[in-house]
């Protein structure tokens, strides 16, 4: 004759099963891949050589601000036409390539002109002068050191000034953060559409692991400034 388990035994068994299920669910959650869109890269471009690490913020320049860099507060968001990075590049043209099939912002064309311009991601839906979110920008880095990305890596640091100009007005920004991340890790907050208004600029950096394969991404965030 079979012996039925007591009520207390059945309760204990149920508790053990629940605990095991909860544990398994927790492990499953930990192992679940994180769905993070990659940072913009330049899939078909050659990568740069290793780049300098972050240097201390330089002493602010006392050079008078050129008239072309006088910033205003437009009454509505502006479409960026040129960008000046003080001490790095002046009145750089801005192009607007479409996003890639995977939703990553497009890069400038792989031409002698394309290596010297910024790409602005209009699909983000955020323009300079909008009240919140990131204005997404990217640029090429070339192995011979001649592209805009190379100049940004060498000369753009915290506290530096960026001027974004439209047809009639300009907006000023100051770099608040410069970080370097592994390309495989991505940076979800690069794509933020809420929070404070800011520029988010990314270029490829780090070692070249192979044709079109970049080890890292360097990202700058810049907040509106007078």
Structural descriptors:
226 residues; alpha+beta; 15% helix; globular
> Based on CA inertia axes, which overall geometry fits?
globular
Beta strands, count: 8
**What low-confidence regions span 5 or more consecutive residues with pLDDT below 50?**
12-35, 43-67
Helix count, DSSP H or I runs of 4 or more residues: 2
Q: Which percent range fits the helix content?
A: 10-25%
The helix-and-strand class reads: alpha+beta
Q: How do the helices and strands follow one another from N- to C-terminus?
A: HEEEEHEEEE
Describe the biggest sheet?
A: 8 strands, mixed, barrel
Summarize, please.
With 226 residues, the protein is α+β, with helices and mostly antiparallel strands. The chain contains two helices and eight strands.
List strands and helices in order, with pairings.
Layout: H1 7-31, E1 82-85, E2 89-95, E3 118-120, E4 134-138, H2 148-155, E5 161-165, E6 170-182, E7 198-210, E8 213-225
Polypeptide structure, described:
By secondary structure, the chain is of the alpha+beta class. It contains 2 helices and 8 strands, in the order αββββαββββ. It has an 8-stranded mixed β-barrel. β1 (about 80-85) and β2 form a beta hairpin. The model is unreliable at about 10-35 and about 45-65 (pLDDT under 50).
